[in-house]
Amino acid sequence: MTNSNIMTQFPPENFKCCPVDNTFKIIGKKFTIHVLRNMMILNQKRFNQLLDSIEGMNPNTLSTRLREMEQSNLIEKRVFNETPIRIEYHLTKKGLALKPILEEMANFSMKFCCSDVFEDAKSRTFKQVFGKGLPLIKQ
Predict the structure, then answer these.
(1) Is the pTM of this model over 0.85?
(2) For 120-138, b where at least 16 C-beta lie within 10 A, e where not — what string?
């Protein structure tokens, strides 16, 4: 089935694109989901915090992702008039709305890919592991 055939099956007729594809365009680039995760879970706000905690990420890629996330209104950049200058990144309401998606991604892996996630390879529910919300996740 081609992409156009799938789209003809979606009501309403005024869709410009698939909503799943659109979300993936926003968060699907390499390391974007890791930056979101660390901002949500680890409360990281500074460039070097993010850079040091995401394995394999280089400064140019992080800078690009932060700029893209800012343009997509997922985060906002705050510049503090201090010496030395301090810059922090904060999730917007739109960025925070992605938290349930990240939680469901974790839930999927804990249930269906448990041998990859847990040392004992036993399936667990999201609630069993995290309770009400995502905890700190080690990278």
Answers:
(1) no
(2) eeeeeebeeebeeebeeee
